[in-house]
Amino acid sequence: METTKIYSIAGKLRNDLPFIVNRPFRAPHHSTSLPGLLGGGTPIGPGEISYAHHGVLFLDEFPEFDREIIEALRQPLEGNNIVISRANNSIAFPASFTLIIASNPCPCGSLGNPKKECKCSPHQQKRYNEKLSGPVMDRIDLHIGCLPVEMEKMSSKSKNAEKSLDIKKRVQAAYEIQSKRYANIPSVHTNTDIGIVEIETFCHLDTEETLFMKRAGNRLGFSARTYHKIIKVARTIADLEKSKNITQMHLSEALQY
User: Fold this and answer.
1) What pLDDT score was predicted for residue 137?
2) What's the rounded Cα separation, in Å, for the pair 170 and 33?
3) In which element (H, E) is residue 50 found?
4) CA-CA to 160 of 20 to 30 Å: which in 12, 36, 149, 243?
5) How far apart are CA 158 and CA 153, in angstroms?
6) Sign of CA dihedral 83, 33, 135, 250
7) pLDDT for res 187
8) How confident is the model at residue 161 (pLDDT cuts 50, 70, 90)?
């Protein structure tokens, strides 16, 4: 219903489908404007982050987005809404979405490729990666680097690959575990929603795990946000394995992300 309201006020509901029944997937181009992504205009209307409410916002070629747009994502990622202010009034639109970004390692895309030489200058590489500011990247839970897939692997099917249907079943089981865990907390549905108080209650670490995280934090220089996000990711990994407790193995995997 929340998502349907957003599409309704923007006049984007289909005549044959008066309700939004599937989670939205939005993938705006990197040339989109600030009002187009966040909302605004005259009259004030929702942007892509609100159209992605309860769904996925995919931003491909992330460093190609305007720096102002990238930095403006910090507030909705933290508060799950966006406030559009004008001289005479302000409007808040909901914006609780899963953000997925994709980025090349450099402008030419070949940095780190063992079979292709990067043609970018150090200045170009530095300028490109400066778009990915620490505060923004700190708000993204999982960071996964991908090397180019070899042609032999593209043309052959792996016998050991887990089927998508099996993965879906594991995700659904973990979602049900979290739904039951937070059934008495109205504003919390999954591990990503919990705050510091809930982390202490539902993500308890035993003595060895606490020492492990302290050593990792001191060595890698965690911010408080990073520390808590790693614990929440570890809690999700444990849920996927139907493990009641968070172990060092779960924390180690979370640290790799």
Assistant:
1) 85
2) 38
3) helix 48-51
4) 243
5) 8
6) positive
7) 83
8) confident
Q: Which residues pair with 13 in a beta bridge?
A: none
pLDDT tier at 5 (50, 70, 90 boundaries)?
very high
CB neighbour list of residue 252: distance below 8 Å, 6 or more residues apart: none
pTM of the model: 0.86
Distance separating alpha carbons of residues 180 and 190, to the nearest angstrom: 10
Least confident of 15-24, 26-35, 167-176, 241-250: 15-24
| Tokens linked to 132 | 């990915």
Residues whose CB falls within 8 Å of the CB of residue 158, separated by 6 or more in sequence, listed in order: none
Cα 147–128–144 angle (5° rounding)?
30
Structure tokens at 217: 């934090």
Vertex 2: Cα angle to 234 and 237 (nearest 5): 10
CB count in 10 Å sphere of residue 40: 20
Q: Which two tokens stand for residue 68?
A: 């102002």
